[in-house]
Design brief:
Layout: H1 2-21, H2 26-29, E1 43-44, E2 55-56, H3 58-73, E3 79-82, H4 87-99, H5 104-110, E4 124-128, H6 143-151, E5 157-159, E6 175-178
Antiparallel strand pairs: 1-2, 3-4, 4-6, 5-6
Length: 182
Amino acid sequence: MRRRKSTEDFFQRLRKIHRELGIPDEYIDAPRLPLCVEPGLLIDTEPDYYQRPQKLVPAAHEAWLAMRGAARRDGVELLLISAFRGIDYQRDLIRRHLEAGRQLDDILRVIAAPGFSEHHTGRALDLASSECIDLEERFEKTIAFQWLERESCEFGFTLSYPRHNPFGIAYEPWHWCFHDQD
């Protein structure tokens, strides 16, 4: 009974946030993306490239450290740009884009709606290298991206939004998500 109530509360909260942003109810009722719930436990990682604090779930953090270490041993630099983002952060991010005059449909092609971002899970990383610090498609031309394509699955990470992905999200060669290897 308690679990059902908290699930209902969660969906009511999401609907309220979506309505504030002008996101249609269909985004929750018939989602393109899987629902992403915030974890109960997050741990601090190293600060990101911009010296902002970041968090991940413990298993993703261990896998990130192992992957980054292996990349270093291979002479490849991986820079952390972003990790966990909560639902409220996602709401504020979309709100800023709306206030800047961008259309909601355009925003939702590059930013998942609150409740549907893999960053909510504490398992997603946005990565860069000194070859390409910005989160742009040209990251795919870097040695770091080529290394990730070959080696990331060894550490449980996959590219979430390849070209022509079924979610309708723009191609993001910098966005990698950890999946338990059990």
